Amino acid sequence: MTTGRAYRPTTMVARLALSLAQVLVSAPPALAATPDIHAHRGGTVVDGKARFAEESLAAYRNAARNGFVLEVDAKLSEDGVPMAIHDATLDRTTNCTGEVRTFTVAELAGCRTDVLGSPGSPLPTRPASRPAPIVTIQALLQYARRAGVEVNLEIKNVPGDPDSDSTPAYANRVMDAVLASGIPRRQLITQSFVAPNLDVARQRLPGVRTSLLSVQAINEAFLQAAADNDYDFISPQWPVTADYVRRAHGMALDVAPFTLDAAADVRAARSARVDAVITDDPLMAARALGRRPARFFSAGAFIEGRRLIATGDLLTPRGVSARQGCRGTVTMRVMIGNLPTRSVQGRLNRNCEFRFATRRTPPRLGAPDVTIRFNGNARVLPQLVGPERAGLKPPVFTP
Fold this sequence. Notes:
Blueprint (H helix, E strand, L loop, with lengths): L10 H15 L10 E4 L5 E2 L2 E2 L6 H9 L3 E8 L5 E3 L20 H4 L3 E5 L9 E8 L3 H11 L3 E5 L13 H13 L6 E5 L2 H10 L4 E6 L5 H9 L4 E4 L5 H9 L3 E2 L7 H9 L4 E4 L2 H7 L7 E9 L2 E9 L6 H4 L3 E8 L2 E9 L5 E7 L9 E6 L8 E7 L10
Parallel strand pairs: 1-4, 1-13, 4-8, 8-9, 9-10, 10-11, 11-12
Antiparallel strand pairs: 2-3, 4-5, 6-7, 14-15, 15-18, 16-17, 16-19, 19-20
Helix pairs in contact: 4-5, 5-6, 9-10
């Protein structure tokens, strides 16, 4: 290149560069990253059918088995125990009536969620043949910690509810339960419509991810507040535009809109490049994003001499070939009591089988508990087995 003169690309090079830029800008929605899926209130609906009670342990276990993030609300009992329930009252979802804050945790043990689905949403509901108890936040988080799944926990201290508290006391009660559960910060997102609740969460658990909720789809004030406070997510009510998502990303914010209960909305959200979707029907959302659950996933762990061996197999969904579906990693988490001791990873082979090992835990501590998780791929959802006690003999799998 000659000095003293600006370099200009040739006409052909310039045209090639322009063509490449146009391709990148107009990339089809299918090339957008697949958003995470958050099971709203546990994910009460499965492929359009009401299957679980709101915020029940059964709903959360089902969501965990398919690798979804567990979205949960925290309301306080009369004696200050955070409970997994969405409303300020018990009327909509349980066989009890009255405000949650007027019942002690012992009294709430007598209340049952007696409807499947989410009454008030456009999705179907039906009576529960086996009403489920209301679970405490601490118990739910302890399950999530042992299973190794992520939780999106809303501190449900909101203006207009009868239990609204303008002091930090409410959020501190919720964070007491978080800390008592022992859940690692990497498995937790705290969300709230009220920014000071998130500030309490960060003070009590430094480094925890935070998400500012907004009941408006395009709320510029909340977007700016989330950026100014260095929160990690903005979570607006759907729909949002691709421009809004782009600007949020420019402010270093992930975007997780709620509540997307139609496949067309989920696909539109992916086209807008959101980072997560919050939905009452997470399996529907997964299918809309091109991912389906395995027809069969069996896994187990057993002790052989000085080794702890994980083994199992997966049957791909119908229409997904072994070449497409038998890909990806499997993680075994090893626990003594409630304390994870290590994680080790293997891979599916071309027959959708796996077998890998780590050193066993000290025999004097007894057989460890394990979770075994297929981490998913572009066509198949993650699958989780456990926590279960490792055996002394190889497991036998039958589809």
